[in-house]
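User: Hello! My lab partner asked me to get a predicted holo structure for this protein. The small molecule is S-adenosylmethionine, SMILES included with the sequence. Please write out the structure tokens.
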Amino acid sequence: MPRDATLLWGLRSPCAFACPHCYFGTIEEHQQAPPTELGVLSHLSRTDLPFQVLKAFARTLVGSPIERVVIAGGEPLDWPPTLEVIELSKEAGCQVVIATNGIPLTRPQVTQRLIALGVDGVSISLDSADAQTNDRLRPSRSGRFGYDDVLSGIRALLNARGDQNRPRVGIYTVVMRERPQEITDMARLADQFGVDYYVPQPISLTPDHKLFTELTHRREDVPAVAEQLHRLYGEPTSLALPDPSYARRFVAAISTQESGNVPDCFGGARLFFIQPDGSVWDCPSDRRIAATPSEQRRSIRGADARTLFADRPACTNCSLFSRDCVNMWPLVLDMPQLLNTRTPR
Ligand SMILES: C[S@@+](CC[C@H](N)C(=O)[O-])C[C@H]1O[C@@H](n2cnc3c(N)ncnc32)[C@H](O)[C@@H]1O
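Assistant: Hello! Below are the structure tokens for the protein in complex with S-adenosylmethionine.
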């Protein structure tokens, strides 16, 4: 059985941040009307699986087709049992990448443990190189944390890692229509900081999202984004970036609102998405989730990764393009490049 699949594992729902554009929605909205639709995420975390169930599943990763586990949420590093899931995933021989808001990295016991466990990559979210703008786009729930703390977390991890190669440290930036310049501004900040990799990714909102009109790229925004991506890939930097084909995919994704085919789609073949309630989907796309026939619905509850992912096609034929599709490439095909030893390009 080839070991070539990536799990994007949304382990826990709560998060100390309240980003209004987050895939998980906002607590305020959900307190008034808790989501009931299939696959809809919520920071309310009413259906998150208990630790014992997660642990039992993580134990079955050994000998399974899962090559890489990308642990996200919600915020995975605010929940201490996440460290045990990481440990089991590493013991199973998987590459482990953590997606974090960066605040837990300011706690030395967390950074030390990530290093000791041999975590391969830590991707930290920052949506603007400007502190005030970032804290407007990514407000913390308490108002007590923000940009400066995220940078302190990144610095703490880089310092604690010292001369060791691992974990590789990256910045992820959600690019919104009003601020194409963040693509290169953030690259410069990341490079100055000694970060290893950088991924700007297009915002992905459903057309009924209240911020869709304000934040989602329109056709007239495409030239400025294309110009920024061109500069990003043209400027000398020691940052690892996704393959240059990613820039073409980014531009193509924001150039259309339409549905369409996703050539060589790896969702359900080399990528699976696990929600905090244990549901397993081909990918996080709400369109794909809605289109999953009920007899194909799966859960990690009581499941064994060796059988759960045994029967997969080499590639899936998907006609349900969404802007989120482009965000999946860095998790799967581009990840080896992002985690590589730092070399000047
Ligand atoms: C949902 S967060 C979870 C991990 C962690 N709490 C964090 O803040 O990075 C994972 C990534 O998704 C991004 N993200 C959230 N909502 C998004 C959206 N609507 N479009 C594109 N990316 C989004 C975040 O900025 C972050 O980089």
